[in-house]
Every structure is written in C-alpha cells, then in structure tokens.
Write a structure and sequence with these properties.
Layout (H helix, E strand, L loop, with lengths): L1 E2 L4 E2 L33 E6 L8 H15 L19 H4 L17 H11 L8 H19 L6 E6 L1 E2 L1 H4 L5 H8 L6 E2 L2 E5 H6 L2 H13 L4 H13 L8 H4 L3 E5 L20 E6 L1
Parallel strand pairs: 4-8
Antiparallel strand pairs: 1-2, 3-9, 4-7, 5-6
Helix pairs in contact: 3-4, 4-8
Length: 282
C-alpha cells in the first residue's frame, strides 16, 4: 500500500484461500418470517487496527490466516497506511477497489458535526427530529434534486428505513426474553417507506420532509406492528414476498443507522481490538 499526494493505492501481491481449521458439518437455520422480506444485500465490512509493536509482516500474515481459519469469516486486511491518510470524506476513493471490492454505485459519507446541523434544520418546525430522521430527509431530497437535474422530472422517489424489531418484540416480556431476542441471528426488520415525486421533494423544506419521514417511521416502532408483520408473512409464505420499498421499479433508497451492528469488540485476529470499522453497501 502506498500514498500519493491526495490518494493512496493498494497493490495485491498474492491471493490465498483460507480453509476451515476443522472439518465442518453443515448446520442450517430456517428463515424466520421477517427474513423472507429482506432481499440479499451485498454488505461488506472492513476493520482497522493499530500497527503491532512486535512481529514481522510475514508473522502477522500467518497469525491472520490462522485466525481466519478458526473464525470461518471473510476479512480484508489493512496494511501499514495510517488511518489519518484515508480520505473517508470520499468512500468511493478510499474504499472501493482498495479495502473493498469495487461496486457499481457509490456511498455517501457525512461527519457528525454536519449531522448536528442537519438535525437543527430538520427540527425548524418546532418538533425535534432524530439524527436518523434528519439524515434520511436530507438524502431523500438530494436524490430527488439529482433526478430533476438529470431530466427525470416529477418521477416517483421512494425512501425506506430499516427498523430493528428485537427490542420492540420483547417489550413487557421480562429481562430474560429481552436478552434472548437481542441475540437472535437473522433479520428482525421492518422497512417502513414513503413515496413522493421528485418535484414535490424539490419544493419542500427539509423540516417538512422530516415530518413526513417521522410519520411513516412511527408506524413501525411498536410491538404490535412486528407481531402483525410476522402473522402477515405467515399467511402468505407460499407467495414470493418483498418489502414495498423494494417492489417498485421507481427510484428507491434505503437508510439504516447500523448502530446495533456489534462486531467491533470481537474482531481480534491476534494483535488487539478494532480501532475503527465500517460497512460498505451499495
């Protein structure tokens, strides 16, 4: 890996397939009803570590291979560039094709400081909006503006939010069931969505858009909603199912905060804990 004036590059010198350390017997978990509503997303994760103070680079590679063999997980190693040199303002430049395989569409990075400003603007109508609601409103509007600028006038533009139902499904059931549902492997998601034309969104203020986002988001924040959703899928399991957000051929974007993606504390491959990690999805 090397660093230029305003960029860095990664040179692949070798590719190695890491096999499981022990023979593995297949163990299949059935889909839950809520898994059936989520399409197969290509989501990659990358993790950054402090450079170890001991051991040669070949030794580190051997440690990584051994850890991967035991973990049976895919990991993209980061070489010796300092984290401060990565231009995380532009994920397409810093991540795609380097830390992660190149994808067909880009991703957007936004700083905490700017997010606070967005939240203030989104709350101008007197109702405080969350950072997630503010960012979703902002993204919805700039996608609509891009559509208008590219000649797709007055076309439908959909936005969806991923809502985690683990905590909501365990409301009132006691601490034991709360912990059990929190550790559930699989999707416990609902994806409420909104739909407006690009022209409508162009003319609306951010706070007005945020009010609409808040309204459709609130429909998916109760225990009853998730219980009803499970029953709804059960009645239709023989049919192909997909969330409304992904059923349309119109422009659609999905937002997920990812704050409950608890892996960083466990990703130790032999030289310490993760100091920075992120997901890359397009």
């Amino acid at each position: 890996m090397g660093i230029g004036d305003n960029y860095f590059f990664v040179k692949v010198t070798d590719k190695v397939v890491v096999h499981a350390e022990q023979p593995w017997n297949d163990h299949w978990l059935p889909f839950t009803n809520l898994d059936l509503l989520v399409p197969p997303f290509d989501v990659g994760s990358f993790f950054c570590y402090k450079k170890p103070s001991h051991g040669s680079f070949p030794d580190l590679l051997n440690t990584l291979k051994a850890s991967l063999s035991r973990a049976l997980s895919l990991y993209y190693p980061l070489a010796d560039v300092e984290l401060k040199e990565l231009n995380l303002y532009n994920p397409d430049e810093s991540i795609e094709g380097k830390l992660m395989p190149k994808k067909l569409h880009g991703v957007l990075a936004i700083q905490g400081e700017q997010l606070n400003k967005l939240q203030l603007v989104a709350s101008e109508n007197g109702q405080r909006r969350s950072k997630l609601e503010a960012f979703t409103s902002f993204l919805w509007k700039i996608v609509a503006l891009s559509m208008e600028d590219s000649g797709n006038h007055n076309k439908l533009c959909n936005v969806a939010l991923a809502v985690d139902g683990r905590r909501r499904l365990s409301e009132g059931d006691g601490e034991e069931k709360e912990k059990l549902r929190a550790s559930h492997f699989g999707n416990v998601l609902s994806m409420p969505s909104g739909s407006k034309t690009s022209q409508e969104l162009k003319e609306m203020s951010l706070s007005t858009i945020a009010t609409d986002v808040h309204k459709f988001l609130q429909t998916a924040t109760t225990k009853d909603h998730f219980l009803d959703l499970i029953d709804w899928v059960e009645e239709r399991r023989s049919q192909p199912l997909v969330a409304i957000a992904f059923a349309s051929k119109e422009m659609s974007v999905m937002v997920s905060s990812g704050t409950r993606f608890h892996t960083n504390g466990d990703m130790d491959f032999g030289w310490g804990k993760v100091v920075f990690g992120s997901c890359h999805m397009a």
